Structure formats: C-alpha cells, structure tokens
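Follow-up to my post from last week.
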Amino acid sequence: MSTQPAQPATLFSPALAARFDKLVTIYPVKRSALVPMLLYAQDEIGYLSDPAIVEVASRVGVSELEVRNVISYYSMLRTKPAGKYNVQVCTNISCMLRGGNEILDHCKKKLGIPNKGVTPDGLFSLEEVECIGACSWAPAAQVNYAFHENLTAESIDKVIDEYRAKGAR
Amino acid sequence: MATLSTHPDCVPVVSYRFGKGATNIDKYVELGGYESARKAIALGVEGIINEMKASNLRGRGGAGFPTGLKWSFVPKQSAKPKYVLVNGDESEPGTCKDRLIFEHDPHSVIEGTIIAGLSIQAKMGFIYLRGEYRYLLEIMERAVAGAYAKGFLGKNIFGSGLDFDIVTQTGAGAYEVGEESALMESLEGKRGIPRIRPPFPAVVGLYGGPTIINNAETIATVPHVFRLGAAEYAKIGTERNGGTRLFCLSGHVEHPGVYELPMGYNLKKMIYVVGGGIRGGKKLKAVVPGGSSTPALLPEEIDIGMDFDQVGKAGSMLGSGGVVVLDETTCMVEFALRTMKFYAHESCGWCIPCREGTDWLKKSLTRLHEGGAVDKDIDNIRYLAENMLGRTFCPLGDAAAMPTIAFVKKFRKEFEDHLEGKGCPYHRAPEPEPALV
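User reply:
Got it. Predicted complex:
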C-alpha cells in the first residue's frame, strides 16, 4: 500500500498546482487568490476553459458563477483561445498621436486578420488594446507579456517575423 | 526595458538609484537602502507621521492628497488588522512612470511599504501591479524574496521585534481597479466595483480593516524623504508641493520620455526645453497636463508651474504626471472620441451616469467624427458630460466628463467644422477591416 496521500486530480502542471496550493494560503482570505490564479491558469492552458473554471472555483472556494462573474470584468481574461502570440496594439491617446492606428492597420494587413481575429494556423491573434503604460515610448504593442516600443511599420514587421520563426521551431 | 530620460534640469530623488543595479538587494543596501526603514523604526509612529507631514509629499496617483495627513487618519486602535496597499495599477492614459520604479528600484517600493506599515502598526502590505506589467511582477517577487532572506521582511524585521509581510500580485486588465476602493475589491478577488465613501479606507478598507492606499510613486518616494530629511525634501519643490515628480512626456514632442523634475517646474519649459519642442517644428495646439482625465490646456495657458495648486488654478489638474502634447495637425474631435472610447470601455457599469453617459458620449462623438452629426449634438455632448460630474461612486465618470467639457469649450470651432457637409481638415479615414476568418 502506498504511503503517498492521494493527490486530487488537476488540470494544471504539478508546478502550477503546487503554486496554487500555496497561493490560497498567503492572503487573509482565500478568495484573494482568484484573479492571479485565473491569470496563471490562462498562461498555462491558453484560455479559461470550462474545466479550468470549475477547478479554480473549487480551489478558491467560490461558485463557478462567481468565477465567471469575475472573468467577465477583466479584459485580459478570456474564455476562448487566442493565438500562441497575442499581438496587442495600443491605440490610446499617446500611441494614437504617434501612429498607433497605423501600426494596428499594418498588423491587420500583415496578419490578414481583423481586430480580435486569430490566424488560421493559431499562431497569432490581434487585439486593439487600451493604454499599456508605454506612452513615452509610443507607439507600442505587447506580444503576450513582452513590450515592443517606438514601433514603425518596419520594426513591427520584424517583431512579427521573429515570433513566426520562433513559433515554427 | 524602459529607461529614464535625463536633462540637466532633472533632479534625481526617486530615480536616485536608477541604472545603478539597485534591483540587487546588496547594491541597494550599499547605496544606503533600508537605512530609511531603520530610521523609521527608531522614530516610531508619531515621528514617522510628523516627518511625512513636514515633507509636503502629496499623493502621486493624481488627487494630490497630503500623504502624512492620509496616514494620520488611520485609527491607533483597531479590532481588525491594518494594511498597506500599494497601487501600481498604473493605467491612466499618458502615464508610464511607476513602471520605471518597479523596473529599476523595486526595493524602494518595498522599503516605502514597510515605513507606511510602521506608521500605522500594520503587519501586512500588498503591492498590486497592473496585469500587463508581468515582467515587473517578476522583478518585484525577486526583490521581496531578497528582503525576506535579509530579515527586512517577515518576523522581527531589522531585529526590531516587529513583523511585516508583503504580498505582490497583478491585476488582469482594468483601468477602474486603479481607483482605491475598486482596487480593494479586486484584491479581495471580486470585480473591481467602487465602494461608496464614507467610510474611507483609512477606517474601513481592505478586508474591513483600516488601510493606507498610496500610489507606487508616492510609496517609492517615502524612503527618500527619510534619506534626505523632510525639510530638505520639501525644499526641492514649491509651497505645499514637496519634492520631485516623474513626469511622462508623450505625444508630439521631439524627445518624449519620463523625466524627474522638481514640483512646480514650468510646463512650457518642460515641453520646449526638456522635451526639445514640438516634433518637426510644428505649432502647439493643446496639452493634456496630467493624464487623459485632465482638461486640456491651450498654448497660451501653459506658462505655469507643474504642481497641484498651480495647475488647478489654470483650470486643470496635475493628475498622474502624464503630459500629452498635441500639435496643430491633431483632430480634436478624434482625440476627444479616442479618450471617450477608453472611458466607455473601462466604465465598470456600476453607476448609471457613468455607464450610460460614456456610451452616449462615445456615440455622439463618433457621429460627429464620421460626419453625420447635427448642430445640437455639440451642446448635447457638453450637457451630457456636465450631468455626469459628481454623480458617481468613483471619479471615473468625472474623469470622462472633465476633459470632454474642456474639449468642447476650448475647441468649439473645430467641433463645428465636423458638422455635416463641412468636413474636418485633419480627418483620418478609417481603413476597411479585413474579413473575419
């Protein structure tokens, strides 16, 4: 007979599951772990799938509905898959003044998808986003969490090509 | 990697350790780091608050409330635990300063949080970064782990017999969460909906306990107040506006960048000397002096000192320190529309004047921009915006209304040029969308 305690089934990698086990203990209330947990879950599996929502709800001790209610509030949380590389172009005021709309239009053409579209190979998605905190280095975009700043049509082309090469490997 | 810009007029106080490898705790300590926390322990509660009051440091998030006074509102006795909450949910369009602090000097945020905690006898602090700043969370997490390893956090900090813990986390994309009560809701694992005040967070805050909430730049400034001494710090700025500020210069200037300048620094000089003037030698049309929610100033209104009182007197606000410069080629209707689209997107929907008002204004401005508007639409925009003011739980409704009123008031002619048949000389036609796949 094994002396190991039975591990509850989890959707997440052992490292992330262990992180979640700890995350619910560091706050005065368990529920505080909800937003970070959703983000980390999404980072690992790409989006917040139904089973992921069920597991997060049970880990935090709230209902599935409460989790969905929180997800719908935060613009970075999604319940549908995005591309492997999510290109988020800022068009807010500081970026707009320095060509953010043109960068967005350029990305639409380059990737052949509209705002909120995903390429057929699933490699890229494109999103027009609100201010990302790169105003003094505008125009700017984020690919997943990485910042790309002082963009021109040429430099965003290069950025996208590099991700494409990385994704093909 | 984001870097600080410099100019001979810059005064490095908050940026004193930027670019010196201070993300490493040993380097931070070598540069005098954590000495302020030791001083604060020796000073005790009253001593810390007196020093903070004497520094004339005012909240760098936008409202400019005196920091020492804010801390003094927390009751000495409390049945519930007290907390410190650092607002690093930097999201006001035009603002990118807290990012530099987290990136270059994470320990100053930790040390400031400890001192804030000492001033109210709290045992726990939270540092909340916006979700987009994941790389900065990683920097902060390493810094916090380093501080625990040195005994600066955890049990018996600095051998003082006091305990203090810090938890770091990010949000997940929501401007509204930068508002203090919505921030507390988010940290409690809920939608970021504002709470009605009173009670103020100093009395009933996070988890119902008395809470200090300060902007990350305010908190990062605190150790420098103790490093320099409150009197020396206050001397750098102007009357009732102590110290320096990280100004984020963006838009149509030759040299955009984040510059640390004394409070009260002349706005015109900031644009023409520090920022190198208007890009391409063009003419200035307007300046948004403190982030997207602050009313725009005309070229003839910018010969003012950048502190809370002087910008207030000029009919706008110092806000978050985001100075957005617009040249003569900017379409003010397009600019007003982009601003409103942002607020309509970010309104949490809790208060009807904000939820409905931002959406209605967005529709009216879109119609004006696209050329289908009628005469009374312009007055209607102003009327709608004026009726949002002061009618919401949090300032998001005001933040959307105030700049809109100023745009209509100051650029009425340009709004009229957009009416049917006239056409806007600056108009940029939207590109057709590729088909959805």
